[in-house]
Amino acid sequence: MSMIRDLRAAVRPALRRGHTAQSYDATRDPSASSAIVDCAVYRDGKRVSDHVGPSEAMARVRAEGGFAWIGLHEPTEREFSGIAQEFGLHPLAVEDAVHAHQRPKLERYDDTLFTVFKTIHYVEHTELTATSEVVETGEVMCFTGRNFIVTVRHGGQGSLRALRHRLQDDPELLAKGPSAVLHAIADQVVDGYIAVADAVQDDIDEVEIDVFSASGGAGAGGSRGARRGGDAGRIYQLKREVLEFKRAVSPLLRPMQLLSERPMRLVDPDIQKYFRDVADHLARVNEQVLSFDDLLNSILQANLAQATVAQNEDMRKITAWAAIVAVPTMICGVYGMNFDHMPELHWRYGYPTVMGVIVGICFTIHRSFKRNGWL
């Protein structure tokens, strides 16, 4: 029961331990794939072999029991072919694992579960711009069998090295077999979603404050008008990044539901209970990501509405000044006609009188527009 109570603490991210486990050394096995990050045999929850290739690891498992965990990073088809043959992996799953760019899913091929996870990493930035990269994606694929688990990672994020170290510090958990490793990977991936969702929420809050603040509101001048256009670009970029986030989270809901609810021979019953916790966290993140999309739509609409209002105000100002300028234009146009008998044309005070009338009328119109908020 102590294993059950400590399961969550064992698989949650924590500080790296001071010691490190021995990694598989490909130079000792010239026939082995250079894509192998680590290869080890675990028996009774303890690591019992180092510096072995996949073939030797499985030979020890078949002879002495336990399970093998082979970790690879971006293997080529040639590098993965030998491992696929050794573990009897289905060609369709192998093709997906090699070429990557798969949507999250759970598939069963004979006695092997093939699971695809999308990892998400938040890209730190000092200022959010219309071209800022907010999230970066990778992939972790797991082939889970009765006595082995093969993990294939794509992308620069989502390393499983620290996770392997933490699991090795909990032999009671590792004794549950490959399904314990599968759960730990799923839990780490979903925990990453939670952290990224919190960071994206901060970016959305920042954009929302800028859009609705006085500096980005209606009635701004030329520089503020440029800022409104920048806000629209930032909002659109955030929507693109949230869409990428959504593509990683939403398709994973069904696989987690199956792992948590449907009995499977390859998943230990004690471990299956804890897939429910992962599924609950994933559902919460999915709701949060969906709310991000709705909120960004509202912010974008508000930003466009503000831009429309600002454009209307600019048109009102232009119209008001055009009305004011029309007065001297009309009067000067009338007196510019070539007629001999114009009113007051030869009067000594005609010019200053006309100029005074122009200034008076323009002042009155300007004051009227100012009072009505057009200027």
Task: List strands and helices in order, with pairings.
Blueprint lengths: L1 H10 L24 E8 L2 E2 L6 H11 L2 E7 L3 H11 L3 H9 L5 E5 L2 E11 L12 E10 L3 E7 L6 H8 L2 H4 L3 H35 L9 H28 L3 H9 L7 H67 L14 H22 L4
Parallel strand pairs: 3-7
Antiparallel strand pairs: 1-2, 1-3, 4-5, 5-6, 6-7
Helix pairs in contact: 3-4, 7-8, 7-10, 8-10, 9-10, 10-11
Strand content: 5-15%
For the termini, the CA-CA separation is: 76 Å
Major sheet size, sense and barrel closure:
7 strands, mixed
Mean pLDDT: 81
Low-confidence stretches: 1-32, 214-226
Provide the succession of SSEs: HEEHEHHEEEEHHHHHHH
Shape: rod-shaped
| Strand count | 7
Residues in helices, as a percent range: 55-70%
Lateral arrangement of strands in the main beta sheet: 2-1-3-7-6-5-4
Radius of gyration: 34 Å
Oligomer: single chain
Structural class comes to: alpha+beta
Number of helices: 11
Can you give a write-up of this model?
This protein has helices spanning 2-11, 54-64, 77-87, 91-99, 161-168, 171-174, 178-212, 222-249, 253-261, 269-335, 350-371; strands spanning 36-43, 46-47, 67-73, 105-109, 112-122, 135-144, 148-154. With 375 residues, it is α+β, with helices and mostly antiparallel strands. It has a seven-stranded mixed β-sheet with strand order 2-1-3-7-6-5-4, with helices on both faces. A hairpin with a 2-residue loop joins strand 1 and strand 2. Helix 7 (178-212) packs parallel to helix 10 (269-335) and helix 8 (222-249) packs antiparallel against helix 10. The protein is rod-shaped and about 125 Å long. The model is unreliable at 1-32 and 214-226 (pLDDT under 50).
